[in-house]
Design goal:
With 171 residues, this protein is mainly alpha-helical. It has seven helices and three strands, in the order αββααααβαα. It has helices spanning 3-23, 56-71, 78-85, 90-99, 107-127, 132-139, 146-156, and strands spanning 27-33, 42-47, 129-130. A hairpin with an 8-residue loop joins β1 (27-33) and β2 (42-47). 40% of the residues are buried.
């Protein structure tokens, strides 16, 4: 895999955590790529720091979206998934095992949200970092009191993604 493609795969991975986490009522502090760090190539932090209290679907979303990008299928083989889980997704995998639900399948949610994930990944790829405003813009979350209801609809599948809003300006 070329360096650019690897960077985009990592951006997809982190964007999936941020997008799915937001839809599952977690507030993103920052999602970023970390240059030159082979152990932590990227991270997504939520406020407050919730550690292992993240829903398993949020923990599993990164590898699922990355597999879709890397292998071009929603049904990667066990070997392909294992390669990602033991590569950049090894910390997610450890947290999933600790969550008690290591076999959660986030594919339906990630598939529904994939356009927003790729939108946010492009921002991450170019800027190296994205904040909560970027995530909400990628999801097309309306401002005001209808925002939480929109996110709830995305979570259950009752609502389809809207067109993304323009991304907030880069710092």
């Amino acid at each position: 895999m070329t360096g650019d493609r690897r960077r985009m795969a990592l951006a997809i991975h982190e964007a999936a955590h941020a997008v799915v986490g937001t839809v599952f009522d977690r507030d993103v502090e920052v999602s970023r790529l970390i240059a030159g760090d082979a152990d932590y190539a990227g991270e997504t932090r939520f406020c407050p720091l919730e550690g292992l209290n993240l829903p398993p679907v949020v923990l599993a979303a990164g590898v699922t979206a990355q597999a879709r990008f890397t292998y071009g299928t929603w049904h990667p083989s066990r070997v392909q998934l294992a390669a990602l889980r033991h590569g950049c997704g090894r910390h997610d995998h450890a947290a999933l095992l600790a969550s008690g639900d290591p076999y959660v399948d986030p594919t339906p949610v990630v598939r529904r949200l994939y356009p927003a994930i790729t939108e946010l990944a492009v921002e991450l790829y170019h800027a190296g970092e994205a904040g909560p405003g970027h995530v909400l813009a990628a999801l097309g979350v309306p401002r005001g009191p209808s925002g939480p209801m929109y996110l709830s609809g995305l979570r259950t599948g009752a609502t389809s993604l809207r067109e993304p809003h323009p991304m907030p300006s880069r710092r």
